[in-house]
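Exercise 7. Predict the structure of Acylamino-acid-releasing enzyme from Linnemannia hyalina.
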Amino acid sequence: MATPQEIFKALAAIPSYSGATILPNSTDSTLNIQVSYSQRDLERNVRRKFTRTVVASVAEKSIPLILNGPSVDTGDAIAQLTSPSGALSVTLRSVAGEKKKHFVEIWADGSILHLLETTALHDDFYADSTFGTLEWSKDETKVVYVAERKKTEDAVEKYNYKPDWGETFTGKREPTLVVVNLDNFEVKVLDRLDGDTSPGQAIFSHDSKSLIFTGYLRNPQFFGIVYCQNRLTGLYQVNVDGSGFKHLTPTLKSARSPRLSADGSTLVFLSNTVNGPHASCAKLLKLDIASGKVSTVVDIVRKPEAASGFPGLYIDQLPRDTWVSASKIFVSSSYRSRKTLLSIDVNTGAIEELTPASQYPGTTNILFANSKWVLTTYSTPTEPWILILGRIEYEKDNIDLKVKFFSLENSKVEKAKAYYQPHSWSIVHKIPGQLDSLEAIFIEPFKSNASAQVSSAVSGAKPPLVIFPHGGPHSGFAAEFSILNLVLVGLGFAVANVNFTGSLGYGQDSVEALVGRVGELDVNECLAVRDHILSTGVVDTERTVVTGGSHGGFLTAHLLAKDPTGFKAAVLRNPVTDIPAMANITDITDWCYAVNDLPFDMEAPPTASISDPEVFKRLRAASPMEHVEKVTAPSLLLIGAGDRRVPPSQGFSWWQARQNKIKKDQSHGVNRIQVFEGTGHALDSVEAESNSAYSLANFLVEFTRVDHPSVPASSAAGREEAAVGRQGEGGRGAFI
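Solution. The predicted structure, encoded as tokens:
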């Protein structure tokens, strides 16, 4: 019988892909592919980063011959990039010590050509997907990156308050453009931009004389930026010396993620609806550099034409290398309960799915593309990520294309296979009486191996069911590899990752259908998924539990009150419990209004949040705290002490209310709480991720194992043969 620690440690030994690129020194027959990985180091509680060169011999029409080089730990390197010709590379490095130091390294022929210390010029580098930048100019004479502006030492000004960018950006207030000139090795920190605009995702213009970037507006109020695509943004241009600042998209309130075509004639970018849901269906737009004209390539899709039809684009950022020809780009996008690879013609708007569900039912994420090749990762809920190379083959007109895919490498961690190979998965959909936008990714333990189930941690004839809704609420689960899911499945649980209405990948109408109905529509749909799976006979009807984080924790708290006897136990991770109490202390005040269909204009925010008594009543009525006295099931809260998105007081207050009720009733209710220092909303430090997973799993096992007093003896009876959309051949999911 495996423990949560044993399962987690085995699965954590599988590295995950963080990037890949085909180096410029590749030839038509031999590809040099630089692959970046990360891996959890559970001994030191850190994420290790390393790179490896994969050499692929790619004779035409044949299966590539793969040679793997040794892995190299990249240590304190923040970011690295090879120049367009391959002759040079740049590394941004921060070295810890009594005082952190920052360096820009220029490499050539395997050694450092120039080492520039920039500690006195700026603070930390940005390497995130929002502001992070590292780019070469086409002529290889300049490098641009983004770093935190140096804090003033003025005796008075250093005490002036300036907000930061919220969750994951604590202490990050002023990202700024930095240009390195390799002709004279000058490092220039550009002046503050007009309009108090924060720059990110900068690229060079085709002539290398200017920079094009996303500008994040922060006037009159800073709003948390991570996971939020509805912010006020625009595309801007500035000369490399900081002069000539101009707005490229003045008619748009949202414009982000600029990507320039190889000939410099066309800029593609994303635009989302400002205000309202934090994530939504995006438009793909293009800007003609010569004329400045902006036009729509792919518009918002209100509702797919068919159940399996194109649902629109749901993309946080476009791939850095997205152009494959003068008229086509490749992207990955949410497509119901999976992510898929799409080809988009920027002239006609035509869209082709390159990894259809019939062949690739899991999730495909693009890492790199050029005119001949594409690199992606692919996984399913029961198969780890693999690296895939796609050969792009053009038809006679040199416009239409097809892609032939080959697997370059897969997991070699033998000890982990025992914790994913025995299991199966499927998509639960078309639930009677429910909207078409409701789905769940259902992972079932041990296939038809009854003895493995009986000897599992939870034991019993059939597995207990975990209802697991996602956060957001406007996000979604994809059919992909998840350690937390597999820890639970390895202990004998069946897991249902619920994509309720409002999840991404189902059309904009579905996104908006949840607005004003949080705590009602999503709660009822979670119950519908539970009841439907219970009705199939594949799980133990007497042993259902629930867990979720953020909005998923909000739903968990609601579910416990709505059906007090329907769940044996629950684990809530950083849950929203009291929306009006959260409104003034979260980094996303607008969210509290938006999900409840109340107006909030980021260009003119209210001077006093929740000042209207009717607004207060509306928000409180949607909050789980309104019904906490009905909760009786054993509960565990897992709280990130540094959470800026859902402040810890949300979990503390719900826990305290339960404590008070337990004492008042003189009951023996179970109500526990754990707090993880040094981590935020996602509980994603290695220490918090691993230990919160152990606590979550052990707690659910405690209240569902067949020897627990609350579990009926019937749960140990013989296991019936039943299946919910049994896994098909080769580990691919079926649909029901």
